[in-house]
Every structure is written in C-alpha cells, then in structure tokens.
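User
Take a look at the entry that follows and flag anything odd:
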Amino acid sequence: MSNTKKHKGGMWEYLESTGVLDWGSYEEIKQAKKAYRKKYFTLHKRKQRASKREFTLGFSKDNEEFVNIVNTAKAHNMKITEFLKSAVMAYINQSFVVPDHWQVAELEQILSQCLNEIQTIVKQKERYSYDREYKYELIEKRIEKLESEISSVLRCPYKLEDLVEKEIKEKPNLKEHLIALLTQDDHQNQIT
C-alpha cells in the first residue's frame, strides 16, 4: 500500500501512527486493520454501556415464555426488544402498551372530526333552532367527554382497585356480591 492517497479517519490515523503503511506487508496491514477494529468496537461498547445500561433476559421455550413474547411483540408491530422496553416502561408508568398507535390515533381523529362537524352545524344558526342548537351542544359535550375518556383509557388504564371502588360507590350491593364470590372461591379451593 502506498501513502500517495490521503485517507482520513481513525483507522488510517492508527495505521499511520503504527508505521505499518510504510514498512508493512499486505498481511501485516490486514492484521493491523483487524486489531484497530477490535479495539474500536471494544471502546464503542464501553461508551455505550456507560451511557445506556443493558440487561440480559432469558426466556424459556419450555413454558412458552419466549413464544408468548414473540407473538405479543408481533401483535404490537414492534421488535422484541422495543416491545419489552415499552412493556416495562408502561408497567412502571401504569399505562398501556397500545397494540396499534395508528389505530388509536385514527379513533381520536374520527372523534375530533365528528366534534368539528357538530361545531360547524351549531354555528350555522337558523330560525327556530334553539332546541336543535341545545341538542347539538349536548352531543358536542358527549363527544368531547368520549374523546378524552377513550384517549385516557387506552393510554393510561385504571387500576383494578380503582375500578372496583368506583363500581362499589355506584352499586353498593356489589360489595356483598364480590365478597360472596371471593369467599365461595376460597371454600372451593380448600375442598380440592
């Protein structure tokens, strides 16, 4: 190899600093390049590990953990590592990993379009339209409420405890029914 060509970059600086370009054979230059790449990737990995922590997980094929994760990642249109990270962060933040972000966005857009259409109709005032206007306003409020509820439920689900407490407040006799179901299940488990 000759130095007539000006090469730039880390590898060429390394090769020039070792002097292998001046005195080395083809094989020696090849070995020096290999050594540089090894050193470069080692340093790169160290930098990556310092800035981004890595974790290694093992999933058994025997009890179908791996298959379940692969299938669920596919259902969410994500790579496995992307899905695992999203699932962990969703668990920590107590939110959902939405199966299809585009579908949720589309639902939100449809609701928003319905709301816009109703707002347009309400703005067009006609004679004797007070009742119609009032009905449109009610529909508009329902759609706004629905839009915010759908978005929050899809992105940040309720905890089971919160749902149970809410239902018990609305239906007081539900508490006794739940207690009966839970104690009935306990008796059946003790028998078997």
Summary: DSSP finds nine helices and no strands in the chain. Residues 55-97 form one domain.
